[in-house]
Amino acid sequence: MTKPGDIVYFQGDFVDRDQARVPIATHAFNYGTGCFEGIRAYWNSNREQLYVIRLREHAQRLVRSARILHLDPDPSLSAERVEAIILELLARNGYHEDVYIRPILYKSGTTIKVTLSGIESDLCVFTQPFGDYLDIRKGLRVMISAWRRIDDNSIPARAKPTGAYVNAALASDEARERGFDEAIMLTGDGHVSEASSSNLFLVQDGVVITPQASDDVLVGITRDCVIELVRKRGWPLEVRRVDRSELLAADEAFLSGTGVQIAPVTSVDGRVVGNGEIGPLTQELQRAYLEAVRGEVAEFAEWRTPVAKVASGN
Ligand code: PMP
Fold first, then answer.
1. pLDDT digits (tens, 9 = 90+) for 78-119
2. What is the largest CA-CA distance in the chain?
3. Catalytic residue among 3, 107, 138, 160
4. What is the rounded distance in angstroms from the CA atom of residue 41 to the CA atom of residue 53?
5. Domain 140-293: which topology?
């Protein structure tokens, strides 16, 4: 019997996970020449409904990343096509739980030449059951990493290139080896950029602050949800350059991302954030975000794409 997650999308088909294998000389495997997305779908047990979160925006970001990295397969892949493949894959897997969805566009050619253009690309998608990636009920202890965030002039920060995640992994390992939960990365010129694979927000004197996109930030889709929640509440918001010492002096801090959702930060480099408790604005944003993504409120319906129910036995 097929278990949820056993069916994947590979080489243009829905196939068994075991059949999805790449040859040893695959360009993406050798050089990290791919781009990907991380998408979540939440299961609402009252409505027996799976909702994919911000599917359109994720599909669009994937297609845009592909354009930056010459990863667009031929014929050109549209965001609508990516969405349709993901929805069909989820329906075929028959999930009744929270899910993580991983589409990857990658250089499937087997040449050893280091270029991007002129090499065949392909799309694959796999999914897996997925609960909380971090314990978001408690505050995270973070450190400022010695590893700097990749510069947009070295590897495009707006795209999600697979190879660039060595940068995130180095920072994340460093933090864990030193007993912290997560790493905050600075730009090459020492401004606050983001966490290893999530965006960062601060609160100071009631103002919600997040680093500007041009500080090598991946323009997160959850970041955008947070901005919408903040604006709806009429709270002041600043999207701008953030100094390292602002982070050390903040009243509240939290991370946002598909994986981390909204994760409070209660200490930075051993200094307590605010009074060391999860701050009130962070709590309110976390509550509102989790309600919205699970479809517990009618509001923000535009964030949720329901997955069609497949009759049991299919
Ligand atoms: N920054 C990086 C480097 C990431 O990998 C992610 C996760 N995709 C984020 C930020 C958060 O982005 P999103 O909210 O779109 O998941």
1. 999 999 999 999 999 999 999 999 999 999 999 999 999 999
2. 58
3. 160
4. 6
5. D-amino Acid Aminotransferase; Chain A, domain 2 (3.20.10)
Whole-prediction pTM value?
0.96
Instruction: Tell the CATH topology of 7-131.
Output: D-amino Acid Aminotransferase; Chain A, domain 1 (3.30.470)
> pLDDT tens, 172-190?
999 999 999 999 999 999 9
Nearest ligand 1 atom to the CA of 224 is 14
Ligand 1 pocket test target in 40, 192, 218 with most atoms within 8 Å of CB: 218
Residue type, position 237, single letter: L
Tell me the best of 39, 193, 199 to mutate to test the pocket of ligand 1, counting ligand atoms within 8 Å of each CB and taking the most: 199
Q: Which residues pair with 207 in a beta bridge?
A: 204
Do you find a cis peptide bond into 211, omega within 30 degrees of 0? no
Is 33 near ligand 1, meaning CB less than 6 Å away?
no
The domain locations on the chain are: 7-131, 140-293
Instruction: Please state whether 267 falls in left (phi above 0), alpha (psi between -120 and 50) or beta.
Output: beta
Closest by alpha carbon to 225, among 174, 173, 299, 160?
299
Is the CB of 220 inside a 6 Å radius of any atom of ligand 1?
yes
